[in-house]
Amino acid sequence: MRVMRGCCRAAPFxxxxxxxxxxxxxxxxxxxxxxxxxxxxxxxxxxxLDEPAWQQAGVISNLTQQSPHPGAPTPFRTEVxxxxxxxxxxxxxxxxxxxxxxxxxxxxxxxxxxxxxxxVALVLDTFGDRVTGYYFRVNAAGARQDxxxxxxxxxxxxxxxxxxARASTxxxxxxxxxxxxxxxxxxxxxxxxxxxxxxxxxxxxxVILRLAGISLxxxxxxxxxxxxxxxxxxxxxxxxLSISPYGLVEAARDFTVPDTEDQLKAGLDxxxxxxxxxxxxxxxxxxxxxxxxxxxQINLTRFPLFYPEKRQFFTDGANQFAFGxxxxxEFIPFFSRQVGLYQGEQVPLLGGVKLIGRQGRWGIGVLDVxxxxxxxxxxxxxxxxxVTYDVDEHLRLGTIATxxxxxxxxxxxxxxxxxxxxxxxxxxxxxxxxxAWAAGSxxxxxxxxxxxxGFKIDYPNxxxxxxxxxxxxxxxxxxxxxxxxxxxxxxxxxxxxYQPRPQxxxxxxxxxxxxxxxxxxxxxxxxxxxxxxxxxxxxFTVDTKWGDRIELVWQPEYExxxxxxxxxxxxxxxxxxxxxxxxxxxxxxxxxxxxQIKTDVFFGTFYSGRMTEWEQSVSYTTPEGHLQLGFSMENxxxxxxxxxxxxxxxxxxxxxAFTPDLILSYYAQYDNDSDNLGVNARLRWTIQPGTDLxxxxxxxWEHPDGSENWWTMTxxxxxxxxxxxxxxxS
Length: 730
Prior knowledge:
CATH architecture of one domain: Sandwich
CATH class of one domain: Mainly Beta
Shape: globular
Number of helices: 2
Radius of gyration: 26 Å
Strand content: over 45%
């Protein structure tokens, strides 16, 4: 199979860009404006809005239903009060509920899964660029979730800000009290208003209420549809100085050598505001001992898997480095996990500097880190920089550059440019996005095509969701500080999903939304020869009014192997062309219930044989969210002429929350590919916002080769860490 090449590939992009240029328009009635009141007396954040200052607050008397029936009345009245006191933004949200015993809580963890919880969430566009901003969410137990927004469809929860929230439940419903220090946010001093929106979720009825953006096509993170929060112009960021020292005690043992290492360690992070919305950060002797372990994955592909960044130094301001459109995990020019990790080993960081924020219409992200020597590689200096410019509220232009190689020996660099145009007023009130990117690498890399480029046209709306993407990666495009699993390829992808919401008849009594879609993808070599193709089809998917979901899948696939592929130990698939079909059914219960069950079954032909994949998970949460239990397992049974194989992955999570600020978690994982059982136990005590104590224990066991008893395990490594981090701000 060969795919047409040449200038016709770019025609859809230029046609769509020309058409979209005429679609720009203003919201017919303009944004809603809310004025924050001035706090004249102290506020104690305890979930009770009983301080006199709350009587001076700016008040939003109710929120409007956004889903499932925009604008329709509900019994869930919501009152929002907003105050500022010079250096803190306060929000008090009273969530009236006709049946308080049914209020759902499943977690008290920081950044825990709140999709099945009664929550309030708010977004802040402090820069006024209508693209980037902050996301905060609180559930009825006072658990906090926060993240950074880079586009309306992308909220990264990896960032942790310093803020406080409490909640209380009573006979009329529940209340959330939130304190947002101005020093936690970056914003231009004296800006008259911020972009602002607030949302309440009632999961048992699957009702969402909002202040602004109440159409079904609107997303909470879409600042083009948000309200305006005035009265924030006098908020003070202080001197903009933040000093965060840490100290730790570590005891580690390697049973394979054997070797024992005990150490005392200290380090420091210093942040200073170089401008009202621009911060410089210095880190010395950086340590990530408290970072959560990666979730293991089974890999039955020929390509490396993607694991997200979790280290706080890199996640703070990570949205400033986001590049391109339509490339997802297939190409990330700067992937911060390449810094401090090399060939599976941790690389200590001597220190680094970072510059993140905005200056007018300019967005800036700069990072420079120096690593230490390790046996696998000498120390190296690694640099990444990203600059964007907002031409107007729709068009953003940008560039990115990286320099350095984690191997400490070879030279490597990359430069890229991108442009993204977005609107929420296409044909009146629809979302539409079009964008393009190009990148090239240099340094000690093989001969070949060193460039890549692509474009995407996107119509992401509630009834119709349509997308078209093209991207090309040169065979010598080599981002040493990025992620590119398949160089030397061209990708042609599209998707059309029709998603009706039945309004009458038998369907309407139990169906919230139906999904019918097709998502074809073709990957070729640079010579046009097809390497892979697949057509994901969803002939029937139903989302019930209670939140349960059933999905049927048919996915025909094709793979062309130019070399033998060892899919599992001892099972090698020979080169050749393979055409096969996969079928699947996915069933998931609603997240608002104490018990949650999910099962996925995929079966059918696979290369020259057949394969069945079973994935099940079950979880239980006590009514007040103190105890969470979760167990999942994945079993893959392959039957090929070259041999049979079984891949297994088991995961157990136990979390006990004494309070939202004192959490004990236990996470165990076992897979039969590595025959390794890993346990991560972590106690996190937030003594006060910005001051955290961590007690972490990591232990790994391995099933010895040749042992007939599968339960026999020998220790491999052990690590215990006590770490205290304190933050002082002025």
